Recover the amino acids of this structure.
């Protein structure tokens, strides 16, 4: 007995779908590296970027730490206050960035944010098209 697949099933994506590692690396390679313990090493170029780009690169970097399991028990999602503390950007600015420049790129679950794997192309597009 043959089971027919619903043609609509191929249109449904999972936020944890396989990731385009080449694209992820190309988006952040000029801005950061990581220690084997999962610590960020920001480049000089990172610090010259606007705050919204720093937040975007930071969230993409968290994806690398998560995917490569560089830290035990590490969660990719992060609260805006923690982003603020780690990047030394005022909390109100982080909230504004997440709700404006990065709206539709990040996904919030119980107040914690991450970039779903399927939005990497959106990240590339926004970086190419926004000159802030």
């Amino acid at each position: 007995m043959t089971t027919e697949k619903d043609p609509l099933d191929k249109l449904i994506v999972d936020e944890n779908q396989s990731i385009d590692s080449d694209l992820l690396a190309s988006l952040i390679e000029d801005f950061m590296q990581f220690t084997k313990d999962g610590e960020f090493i920001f480049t000089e170029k990172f610090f010259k970027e606007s705050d919204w780009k720093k937040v975007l690169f930071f969230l993409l970097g968290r994806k690398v730490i998560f995917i490569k399991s560089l830290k035990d028990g590490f969660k990719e999602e992060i609260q805006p206050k923690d982003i603020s503390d780690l990047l030394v950007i005022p909390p109100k600015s982080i909230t504004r960035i997440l709700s404006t420049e990065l709206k539709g790129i990040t996904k919030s679950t119980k107040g914690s944010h991450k970039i779903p794997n399927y939005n990497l192309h959106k990240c590339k597009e926004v970086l190419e098209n926004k000159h802030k």
